[in-house]
Amino acid sequence: MTSHLDLGCGDVPRNPYQRTELFGVDLAGRAGGGSIRSANLAVQPIPFESDRFESVSAYDFLEHVPRVLPTADGLSTRAPFVELMNEIWRVLKPGGLFYAVTPVYPHPSVFQDPTHVNPLTTGTHDYFVRPKRMASIYGFVGDFVVRRVELTRHHEAAPAYHPPPASAWERWRLQRRIRRGACGHIIWEFEAAKGRPEPSRG
Q1: pLDDT tens sequence across 76-129
Q2: Using CA atoms, how far apart are residues 201 and 199, in angstroms rounded to an integer?
Q3: 76: closest CA among 141, 138, 136, 142?
Q4: Domain that holds residue 97
Q5: What is the average pLDDT value for the chain, to the nearest integer?
Q6: Residue 131: what are its φ and ψ, rounded to 5°?
Q7: Does residue 166 belong to any structural domain of this protein?
Q8: Is-contact 96 53, C-beta < 8 A?
Q9: 62 falls within a domain
Q10: Per the domain annotation, does 159 fall within a domain?
Q11: How many domains are there within the chain?
Q12: Residue 23 counted as domain residue
């Protein structure tokens, strides 16, 4: 039996990898047990135990997680987005997959919604994946390996698996859409590298 967790799922969690068990986390979820649990992931941990899931997804969710908030005493700051990425890594099993789709700068969809507080760029993933993991200076303790980072049109982003453009014509069409600004979202697909040594760079 395999399990998937969808973050910010609303009433219907998505299951991009077609796992046999499906769970969700949402502000309007149900407290306690159940398949959709309640949590504000900007200030609370993911309400599941460590090493629980083969995969986690976040559709149009990461852009709603603040980058910086004041601490409760107002004397310092914390980094909710970095903390969430730690939590995603924590609940994934070794080799588990994280799949996210989010608006990407400079597309207007990044800023149109007034609840978008976390603009992502085509390089934001470098803060959480090998070899750079630049967010470690902000408290990131996770370790991800990139399987895929690519621009897409939103309606193409739902399936976790789709073949890359095979022909020169398809690749040309994708590049043309990118230049026109039609690809307003980015796909992240990371693997949790738990217990896997980082390759030597020497």
Answers
A1: 999 999 999 999 999 999 999 999 999 999 888 899 999 999 999 999 999 999
A2: 6
A3: 138
A4: 3-192
A5: 88
A6: -90, -10
A7: yes
A8: yes
A9: yes
A10: yes
A11: 1
A12: yes
Looking at residue 153, its amino acid is: R
- What's the Rg (C-alpha) of the chain? 17
- What b/e string do you get for 34-72 counting C-beta neighbours within 10 Å, with b at 16 or more? eebbebebbeeebbbeeebbbbbbbbbbbbbbeeeeeee
Q: Which residue has the tokens 């559709």?
A: 59
| Distance from C-alpha of 149 to C-alpha of 116, rounded to nearest angstrom | 21
Per the document, the length of the chain is 202
C-alpha to C-alpha distances, 27 to 103, 121, 126, 161, 197, nearest whole angstrom: 21, 26, 28, 28, 36
Q: In this predicted model, what pLDDT tens digit does every residue of 23-51 receive, in sequence order?
A: 999 998 776 667 999 999 999 999 999 99
Q: Which two tokens stand for residue 137?
A: 């200076």
As a dihedral over the C-alpha atoms of residue 70, residue 133, residue 123, residue 23, rounded to 10 degrees, the angle is: -70
pTM of the model as a whole: 0.87
